[in-house]
Automatic annotation (TrEMBL):
One Pfam family cited in the UniProt record for this chain: HTH_31
PROSITE patterns given in the database record: HTH_CROC1 (PS50943)
Stored InterPro entries: Cro/C1-type_HTH, DUF5753, Lambda_DNA-bd_dom_sf
Residue ranges of every copy of the HTH cro/C1-type domain listed in the record: 18-72
The name this protein goes by in its record: DUF5753 domain-containing protein
Length: 283
């Protein structure tokens, strides 16, 4: 069996879920291995995402782990047998792995919800806006890598294309709308782009204005990606050292609540469009 040298984010998520199922059943790796007729290290490789798992073996393990959630098991089977090599694979070894994992996550998401306070969400950025953001990095990126990152960010917009675009909702603070990451022309074009995309049926943009009273949620920035079943949802948060992917059930529940709390206090979509239009006229 050839082991993977670099599992994808989706392969790692499957591995995590298989380990959780085994641990919830109170079984050791050697007991799971005995069921499949393999060695305990092979179970460890599966649970580290280094080795794949056939549908037959996955279903045998799930039954042995007394998992009765059929929809969840079916979703795991899809993850285990999926052979998709998406557009993001062309960036492997060109960009950090989290860039690829995020694009893969967005591609498979059943819906996407985003909360941002300082930047326009990535999938809604214009090329000039994204270039200005990446150009501010310290140490500065070589020009070739900077353009590669911009191109990757623009390709993430493919989730909005085709006959079945991904439902997307963004809650954006006024600060992100007002911060000029480059010049006024870039900001005008970015706001105009937001107005254009928010007219789409599958994209909803909401605004949190500065003068909203009683709002203390400025630390709630997130990308919430819906899985094929709620247990496979994922939250992505940016930090000083890169993105972190969160998938524990308790934290997912907390972030669902947090998103709805932020959504509830934001302006309605039509009022948000009017708000963005007024800002654009000020520039």
């Amino acid at each position: 069996m050839v082991l993977r040298s670099e599992p994808t984010g989706r392969q790692l998520r499957l591995a995590v879920e298989m380990r959780r199922l085994r641990e919830a059943a109170g079984l050791a790796a050697r007991e799971a291995a005995a069921l499949l007729g393999v060695s305990a290290p092979q179970i460890s490789q599966i649970e580290a995402g280094l080795a794949g798992l056939s549908e037959k073996r996955l279903r045998r393990l799930a039954a042995h782990y007394v998992c009765t959630d059929e929809a969840f098991v079916d979703a795991l089977v899809v993850m285990a047998t999926d052979r998709t090599r998406g557009w993001w694979e062309e960036y492997r070894e060109l960009l950090p792995t989290p860039f690829l994992d995020l694009a893969e996550l967005e591609h498979h998401a059943t819906f996407l919800r985003e909360v941002q306070f300082l930047y326009i969400p990535g999938p809604l950025q214009t090329e000039d806006y994204a270039r200005a953001v990446f150009a501010y990095r310290i140490p500065e990126l070589p020009q070739e890598e900077l353009e590669t990152r911009v191109r990757h960010r623009m390709q993430r917009k493919t989730i909005f294309e085709g006959p079945d675009p991904t439902p997307y909702e963004a809650v954006i603070h006024e600060a992100a709308l007002r911060i000029m990451v480059n010049d006024r022309a870039t900001s005008r074009a970015q706001l105009a782009h937001l107005l254009d995309v928010s007219a789409s049926e599958h994209i909803t943009v909401r605004v949190i204005p500065f003068d909203l009273e009683g709002f203390a949620g400025a630390a709630s920035a997130m990308t919430y990606a819906g899985g094929s079943v709620p247990k496979l949802d994922t939250v992505v948060r940016d930090g000083p050292h890169g993105a972190s992917f969160i998938d524990s059930e308790a934290q997912l529940t907390a972030f669902r609540t947090l998103f709805h709390r932020v959504e509830d206090v934001s302006l309605a979509p039509e009022r948000s469009r009017d708000f963005i239009h007024r800002l654009a006229k000020e520039l």
